[in-house]
Amino acid sequence: MRKSFPIKYEWDIVSIRSEVRELAKEYGFNDLDQSRIVQSVSELARNVVHHAEEGVVHIEKVEEGEKTGMRIVVQDCGPGIADVDEVIRKSESPAVSDGFGFKHVRELMDEFSIRDNEGKGTYVEVYKWLSRSGTYTEQ
């Protein structure tokens, strides 16, 4: 089942954090991974509020082969990112703060992808996986 949460204002992030933590707990993630997931969603939602003004977070439980986890998609209605590769490159530099949120999310989650929707917003997709026993697996 997919859940969606609109993002328009800073205070939306607070309620989304609570909802995401409950879903992560329900899906079987331990406290540490719940925190990683919540922090990632916070970073991505904050980007929406600051750069795009509105968007949506979609969350769903996923199964791929023997893997079970959480898929999170954050899509905004902003101007998009003119050069996604450049923002990702800049995020790797300790001297530049642009894109730092993306770097942080990539470190916290197991999979990360981002794409520009041709001037109609940005689409970020991340995954966090459980091990077969329902605990975090280092990748």
UniProtKB/TrEMBL annotation:
Top-level taxon of origin: Bacteria
Assigned keywords, A-Z: Kinase, Serine/threonine-protein kinase, Transferase
Transferase as UniProt keyword: yes
A UniProt-annotated Pfam family: HATPase_c_2
Domain Histidine kinase/HSP90-like ATPase: 13-126
InterPro entries with a match to the protein in the record: HATPase_C_sf, HATPase_dom
Protein's UniProt keywords contain Nucleotide-binding: no
CDD domains in alphabetical order: HATPase_RsbT-like
Single Gene Ontology MF annotation: protein serine/threonine kinase activity
Full protein name: Serine/threonine protein kinase
